[in-house]
Design a protein that fits this description.
The complex is a heterodimer of chains A (456) and B (432). Helix content of chain A is 36%, strand content 19%. Chain A is α+β, with helices and mostly antiparallel strands. Among the domains of chain A are: 3-88, Uridine Diphospho-n-acetylenolpyruvylglucosamine Reductase, domain 2 (2-Layer Sandwich); 95-213, 2-Layer Sandwich (Uridine Diphospho-n-acetylenolpyruvylglucosamine Reductase, domain 3), CATH 3.30.465.10; 215-327, Alpha-Beta Plaits. Chain A has a 5-stranded antiparallel beta sheet. In chain A, helix 8 (228-240) packs across helix 10 (283-299) and helix 13 (347-360) packs antiparallel against helix 14 (387-406). The longest helix of chain A has 20 residues, at 387-406. Chain A is globular, with a radius of gyration of 23 Å. The mean pLDDT of chain A is 94. By secondary structure, chain B is α/β, with parallel strands linked by helices. Chain B has 4 domains: 9-100, Orthogonal Bundle (Fumarate Reductase Iron-sulfur Protein, Chain B, domain 2), CATH 1.10.1060; 104-158, no CATH class; 167-297, Glutathione S-transferase Yfyf (Class Pi), Chain A, domain 2, CATH 1.20.1050.140; 313-427, Rossmann fold (3-Layer(aba) Sandwich), CATH 3.40.50. In chain B, helix 3 (41-52) packs across helix 6 and helix 18 packs across helix 20. The radius of gyration of chain B is 22 Å and the shape is globular. The chains are: A alpha+beta (456), B alpha/beta (432).
Chain lengths: 456, 432
């Protein structure tokens, strides 16, 4: 990048917040996928005004800007394309206000989600969205991707908690959307439009999030099923009986065998699936819910049910689920985590279809994830350096998306489109829909500066 | 540029499992202090991929990035895929040293000072003189200052008073007096550089504790454990030290080898791997941290009494990274402290098991960052209300003492110093 541009950025941000060496830039060229893109410069602003100045200048010199939180995304959403500016927002990490009366928190986009959880829980409050990376990912990134997580089944996703935003527009102006009220119909709902816009419509510089009271207690059950389809059906039955657990996590037989090979936890090896179900709320409600769930699952063909109510017991039951991600890597070095999502009623059909696809293309595909909300996470395990295998992976992925759409589902439940699924956008959205998205993008970002090449 | 083979095949397999998920960022003290991704494991592994492929070369910048790691292992134990970041980074440093050399400062320290106890003692003596007479000009003329990087001033602050006599000199005429007629065990004491040169009272405390418990102690010929050289990628000098220590200790017939330094312990545990010689395990299996030896093997007990009106002294404990994950590494030091009641009252401090930032020579080469990491620790130590902060690693102790030097009501000591102070008066050696 031209020295005079670098000098300008240094004049705005100070020397320490402008990274120019190739070695440092490489460290901002990736996310949690195998996508790569080397930025020309890395900028680490600390204030909204600095972000605005950067955006204005980028429009002047026509250089693209790629916003980035912690870089843990799973769709390539923050990865730079053809150089440009990596705009790292992790230094805007202040929690500015926690209000027990208004049940809200005001925070900078760089606040780590797990730290926000801890801070509000110390006040007896609760912020439910809990993406798997919450120990490192940032609130700003969660808003850009509209992140979910296991607790989404009961509590919903990030979008359901965003009350208001401060945003720097793609042309470098500062704007506020929404506010501190739950009810707000003043103008278009830009808060919702920006949440999940994958950093293409604005740079979030402050967020106001809705909170709920912290649940009193919780309880966990580990339930084994001889038949995977029975497990899938049990999920529907639980909901149909009026119980909404916090999470329903599913692990299929491939996953169970991987976990046991690595960890010897004692999961049953002769079953096709286990469900890990957690309920929360007041003590009596939790007790009766978990008993009802056990009963329903037995009726649906569960071969064993184990319940834990104390922390040690729950940790033991969760241990297997937590070990999944590492354990499946024994099948191959590269894990591609898909998150095609389908209506809950279609889970049994989807599971059958996924097994067929895995067999057809001879690809290890452990199935696990947030089955409760239809967000299945079939994980393709392969070797990214094996082109022949990666060609089969591509075909399998195509079929997974087709199957999900045919069952009334969608391409992505929580990871976003980014780079990885944009080729499927028209298939999912239709030409009219994609044109509509493009029209919005063009209206607010006429120079196509902000995160170009993503989503569509 | 050509491709490079840097890792062992086993580590390469682990390395390939890194998916750049970023979980290491939640476990890296350096990332917490700096927010810079080049300093966290994920960033370094991405760079290493490019070094392996021959896409980038070892530049000064790259060397600086790879030198900025505490090798605390936090990333490894937090990694969902179990990638040993600290081992991979250490081997990357080895490749860096092989490719571009070590630099004159570290070379001097590793080759001449650490490799030979005699020379190291000489350096210690000079440092003592320097601290006593403020003869920095003299040291400069002797070339000693050049052995240390620019922060010598801070180093001097950190080790304000080099003692006149080092541990071996202090013990020279005392150890034979402590011959026991029918000892329960015979142990070899690997003293470590800091106890030998800077904190001899720690070694004296250990001699007193073991003698009081009818354990014979011998001090075999020994050099530095090798960790400072190995950690900095200097395998040539590091392995030399490792070999010499192994040869020397193999000559002795002992039940255990004890150490008061978590880093020495960590190094010794890796000796078979460094030498790629399984037979060395027979020797290294005998190595044990002194706290664990006192609790699990000797099951020591004390009867310290409070005088009328005397109040218990509040004491807290900091977990050294290289001790906390070993068997009994977290429990034994705490148990030992609890057995010193009522003279001492153990209180847990916040963030007790997070890295203090010292990481051996890191606190000297990267003084400012090390201090930034330490700040969280210093604050937690103050808030614990303790009058004494203890630990079981001499470098952690130095670093914490430096960070807490303004706090006149807080002392930083090794756990065994407190334990020895609870022995009956006649069993305590007085150091002049």
């Amino acid at each position: 990048m031209d020295r005079k541009h670098i000098d300008y950025f240094i004049s705005v941000l100070g020397k320490d917040n402008v990274l120019v060496t190739e070695e440092e830039r490489i460290c901002y060229s990736y996310d949690g996928t195998f996508n790569r893109g080397l930025p020309d410069v890395v900028l680490m602003p600390e204030k909204t005004e600095e972000v605005a100045k950067i955006m204005k200048y980028a429009n002047e010199i026509k250089v693209p800007v790629f916003p980035r939180g912690a870089g843990t995304g799973l769709s390539g959403g923050s990865v730079p394309q053809d150089g440009g500016i990596a705009l790292v927002l992790s230094r805007m990490n202040q929690i500015k206000e926690i209000s027990r009366e208004d049940l809200l928190v005001v925070a900078g986009p760089g606040v780590v989600t797990g730290k926000l959880h801890k801070a509000v829980e110390e006040e007896g409050l609760f912020y439910p969205p809990d993406p798997a990376s919450s120990a490192v990912c940032t609130i700003g990134g969660n808003i850009a991707e509209n992140a979910g997580g296991p607790r989404a089944f009961k509590y919903g996703v990030t979008r359901d908690y965003v009350l208001g935003l401060e945003v720097v527009t793609p042309t470098g102006d500062i704007m506020r959307t929404g506010g501190k009220t739950v009810k707000n119909v003043t103008g278009y709902d830009l808060t919702r439009l920006l949440t999940g816009s994958e950093g293409t419509l604005g740079v979030v510089t402050e967020v106001i999030l809705r909170l709920v009271p912290k649940p009193q207690t919780k309880s966990t059950a580990l339930i084994a099923f001889d038949k995977l389809v029975d497990a899938a059906r049990a999920i529907g039955s639980i909901v149909a009986n009026g119980i909404i657990p916090v999470t329903i996590e599913l692990m299929d037989d491939t996953t169970i065998h991987c976990v046991e090979a690595n960890n010897k936890i004692g999961l049953p090896l002769d079953v096709e699936a286990v469900l890990l179900i957690e309920v929360d709320g007041k003590a009596e409600q939790v007790k009766s819910d978990i008993e009802d769930i056990a009963e329903i699952c037995r009726k649906e063909g569960a071969s064993s049910v184990e319940v834990a109510t104390d922390k040690a017991g729950m940790d033991r039951l969760w241990k297997g689920r937590r070990a999944v991600s590492a354990s499946v890597l024994q099948l191959g070095p590269t894990k591609i985590s898909e998150d095609a999502t389908i209506p809950r009623s279609q889970i049994p059909a989807m599971v059958v279809k996924l097994k067929e696809i895995a067999k057809k293309y001879d690809i290890p595909m452990p199935i696990y994830g947030h089955a409760g909300d239809g967000n299945m996470h079939p994980n393709i395990v392969a070797d990214k350096d094996n082109p022949e295998e990666m060609a089969r992976v591509k075909k399998a992925t195509d079929e997974i998306f087709e199957a999900a759409l045919a069952l009334g589902g969608t391409l992505s439940g929580e990871h976003g489109i980014g780079l990885m699924k944009k080729d499927y956008m028209e298939m999912a959205y239709g030409k009219v829909g994609v044109d509509y998205l493009k029209a919005i993008k063009k209206a607010v970002d006429p120079n196509n500066i902000l995160n170009p090449g993503k989503v569509f | 540029m050509e491709k490079k083979e840097i890792l062992t095949s086993e580590l390469q397999k682990e390395f390939n499992k890194c998916s750049r998920c970023g979980t290491c960022m939640a476990h890296c003290p350096l990332y917490e202090a700096t927010g810079m991704e080049a300093f966290v494991c994920r960033g370094k592994l991405e760079l290493l991929t490019k070094i392996e492929k021959g896409e980038i070369a070892w530049t000064d910048k790259l060397a600086e990035i790879f030198s900025t790691c505490l090798l605390c292992g936090g990333c490894h134990y937090g990694c969902p895929n179990g990638v040993s970041g600290e081992k991979i980074i250490q081997l990357a440093r080895k490749n860096m040293v092989e490719t571009r050399g070590l630099g004159p400062i570290k070379k001097g320290v590793f080759q001449h000072l650490l490799n030979n106890n005699g020379t190291l003692n000489k350096a210690g003596k000079l440092m003592y003189l320097s601290s006593k007479f403020k003869v920095r000009p003299l040291m400069r003329s002797l070339g000693i200052l050049k052995l240390f990087p620019k922060n010598l001033y801070d180093l001097e602050k950190m080790v304000p008073a080099f003692p006149k006599k080092n541990f071996r000199q202090l013990m020279a005429d005392k150890l034979p007096q402590k011959e026991l007629s029918n000892p329960r065990y015979t142990v070899a004491y690997f003293t470590g550089c800091v106890t030998q040169l800077m904190n001899p009272q720690v070694g004296v405390a250990i001699v007193d504790l073991l003698t009081a418990n009818n354990v014979k102690i011998i001090l075999p010929e020994q050099g530095c454990c090798g960790m400072p050289a190995l950690a900095n990628g200097d395998y040539k000098n590091g392995l030399d030290l490792v070999r010499k220590n192994v040869e020397s200790f193999q000559k002795e017939k002992v039940d255990y080898i004890i150490t008061d330094c978590a880093s020495c312990l960590g190094a010794w545990e890796e000796y078979p791997e460094y030498l790629q010689d399984e037979s060395v395990k027979e020797l290294t299996d005998k190595v044990m941290d002194i706290n664990r030896f006192l609790i699990e093997v000797l099951d020591v007990h004390f009867e310290p009494q409070l005088a009328d009106g005397e109040k218990p002294i509040k004491v807290t404990y900091h977990d050294p990274c290289h001790l906390k994950r070993t068997p009994g590494g977290k429990t034994c030091p705490r148990e030992l402290l609890k057995r010193l009641a009522p003279k001492y009252e153990f209180v847990e401090m916040k963030f007790a098991d997070s890295c203090c930032g010292s990481a051996g020579s890191f606190m000297i080469t990267h003084y400012d960052v090390a201090n930034k990491i330490g700040e969280k620790k210093y604050k937690a130590a103050r808030e614990s209300g303790a009058n004494i902060v203890t630990s079981a690693c001499p470098t952690c102790i130095m670093h914490l003492a430096d960070g807490l030097q303004e706090d006149k009501n807080i002392e930083v000591k090794h756990v065994v110093e407190l334990a020895a102070s609870c022995l009956p008066k006649e069993q305590q050696t007085k150091i002049k």
